[in-house]
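Researcher: Re-running this chain for the archive, since the previous output was lost when a drive failed. Same request as before.
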Amino acid sequence: MKILDHLEEWLITFLMGAATLIIFVAVVHRYASGLPIPFLQDALIKINMSWAQELCIYMFVWMAKFGAAYGVRTGIHVGVDVLINRLQPGNRARFVIFGLLAGALFTGIVGTLGAKFVWAMGHTDQVSADLELPMWIVYLAIPLGSYLMCFRFLQVAWNFLRTGELPHHDVAHVEGIEDVSALDPFHPASAKQGGKP
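Model: Regenerated structure tokens:
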């Protein structure tokens, strides 16, 4: 499972970083091409960067689909659970499981419909405008991302059934720093350790 987790994280990181770099290069190219410097302007105009915007759009679509699955795994999706948290533990658990299974069912259906669409698209000669990529490759993000998200919903549901815990994303947590009191002398933990609030 750790291999899939790391692959997911590396893919999202690569897509985000590469798209940012490509957009930066394209903007600099466009700006520098307009400068009235004879040799530089002539050389830059010969470089075709029209594909950059299309590629970045596709990269962000792929990043979003896999990022949604990452969000389910880590608990960073926004959810309104005020009423569910006020229920008795038994009823709360039933609603949580129902919600997770509903999410798995929905993403499984989207993945299956997406796979059928990609299969049909694979039998056409349709390509993208600038990159001339087969469109089935572009749309492959839908079934792959949706099936991964479905798997993540099932994984969270199974973990909840075993432990009773859901993934929780702490926005104040900094990776690699475990002792909050070392950063904030006013934190309650620092007062317990003898720090002055």
